[in-house]
């Protein structure tokens, strides 16, 4: 979910900041969405921790998996997906570059 938000911001900023290189646009976009991503993840983690503390044994294992998933998902949204976009852009180029 957070990756979609970051990539949508990249798309918006790409239209606004045409003169900047993609690496700068990605950096700006990640910085603009970072607080939203962290706040969303923290509130979700608080709920999951309460499930771990007050739920039963069955819920505890489920909540542990959710906890790990939220941490990994947040990490990948910020530190993996955007650099992969830059690598793909460098390797394959843009649609407009291939057309011309």
Short description:
This protein is mainly α. The protein has one domain.
Give structural notes:
This protein is mainly α and 100 residues long. The protein has one domain. The protein has five helices and no strands. Helix 1 (2-16) runs antiparallel to helix 2, helix 1 packs parallel to helix 3 and helix 2 (22-54) packs antiparallel against helix 3. The longest helix is centred in the middle third of the chain and has 33 residues, at 22-54.
Which radius of gyration do the C-alpha atoms yield? Answer: 18 Å
Number of E strands: 0
Strand-and-helix sequence, N→C? HHHHH
Class per helix and strand makeup: mainly alpha
Relevant terms:
mainly alpha; elongated; about 100 residues; single chain
Q: What's the topology here?
A:
Layout: H1 2-16, H2 22-54, H3 57-79, H4 81-92, H5 95-99
Helix pairs in contact: 1-2, 1-3, 2-3
């Amino acid at each position: 979910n957070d990756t979609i938000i970051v990539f949508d911001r990249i798309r918006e900023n790409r239209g606004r900041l045409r003169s900047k290189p993609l690496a700068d646009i990605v950096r700006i976009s990640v910085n603009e969405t970072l607080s939203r991503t962290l706040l969303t993840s923290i509130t979700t983690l608080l709920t999951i921790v309460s499930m771990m503390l007050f739920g039963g044994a069955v819920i505890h294992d489920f909540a542990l998996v959710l906890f790990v998933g939220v941490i990994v998902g947040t990490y990948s949204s910020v530190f993996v997906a955007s650099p992969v976009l830059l690598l793909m852009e460098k390797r394959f180029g843009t649609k407009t570059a291939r057309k011309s």
